[in-house]
Amino acid sequence: MNQRPMFLVALLTGFLLFGCRTTAKEMKTRAHSSTKAIFTEVKEAGTIPKGFAELTIKTNVKTHTEGYYILESKESQHGKQKYPFLVNISGEAARWEVDGIKDSKPAYDADGKTSRDPEAGEGCKYVLEKKIRLKEGSHRVFFGLPEDAYSTEVEMSLKEGEMSTLEFRPIYRTKNIPARIPTFMNGIDTYEVFLNEKQIL
User: Fold this and answer.
1) Is 68 among the domain residues?
2) For the chain, what is the domain count?
3) CA distance 160 to 9
4) Does residue 38 lie in a domain region?
5) Among 135, 140, 158, 159, which is most buried by a count of CB atoms within 10 Å?
6) What is the pTM of this model?
7) Is the Cα dihedral 36, 86, 48, 46 positive or negative?
8) pLDDT by residue (tens digit) across 60-72?
9) Are 199 and 8 in contact (CB under 8 A)?
10) Is 53 within the bounds of a domain?
11) Residue 11: per-residue pLDDT
């Protein structure tokens, strides 16, 4: 893990610390800031100030529609208008709620077989994209889904003037019948993490 390619060291370095199920207590702790002025959201394009870098955070998740599971709590945000994503960067937290979009993809392929697309079927998709400005140097980024008790944490280093992208791509749990196929209907298994389109996990 310490043997990083030179071009990554020159641009942006990072590694995944862990991805796991998170307790409600841990999620609540991470939802509160222990410090301030770590980052600010960027609304418009502009010159990056000296000593700062810009980072675009991208992620998405697809869930079942509201009320699909009879026993699911009415408080659940799955399939509802808003879905929360939690980010905590070096102690400063932000909870971003994203509007859902009804998403429908064919459940069967052209041959009539069950689609192997993990997002096949009727559901609700939530897409997050935020650009932030933060000081150059090392930062620890906690990414969590409060509704799914999932989190992962990334440590990375940004250089002054850089414009970088950190992306979390969802991997869904598999179903066993009729075949082992990942499906959003079974919820999140983990997230693959990419720095500037280069997978780090």
Assistant:
1) yes
2) 1
3) 13
4) no
5) 158
6) 0.86
7) negative
8) 999 999 999 999 9
9) no
10) no
11) 37
Tokens standing for residue 75: 């408080």
* Phi/psi at 44 (5° precision): -130, 155
1 belongs to a structural domain: no
**What are the tokens at 120?**
């096949």
Choice between 105 and 37, residue whose per-residue pLDDT is larger? 105
Question: Taking 60 as the threshold, does the pLDDT of residue 111 lie above it?
Answer: yes
Q: What is the dihedral of CA 106, 110, 114, 116, to 10 degrees?
A: -80
Q: Using CA of residue 76, residue 77, residue 78, residue 79, what is the dihedral sign?
A: positive
Domain hosting residue 66, numbered range? 60-85+99-129+167-190
93 pLDDT higher than 90: yes
**Could you give the CA distance from residue 35 to residue 133 in angstroms, rounded to a whole number?**
16
Residue 96's nearest CA partner among 59, 140, 138 is 59
Cis geometry, peptide bond prior to residue 178 (ω within 30 degrees of 0) = yes
- Measured distance CA(32)–CA(148) in Å, rounded: 18
pLDDT greater than 60 at residue 157: yes
Burial 37-50 (b: 16+ CB within 10 A, else e): ebbeeeeeeeeeee
* Of the candidates 76, 56, 20, 64, the residue with the CA atom closest to the CA atom of residue 191: 20
Q: Say which residue the tokens 């998170």 belong to.
A: 22
Q: Indicate the residue type of 163.
A: M
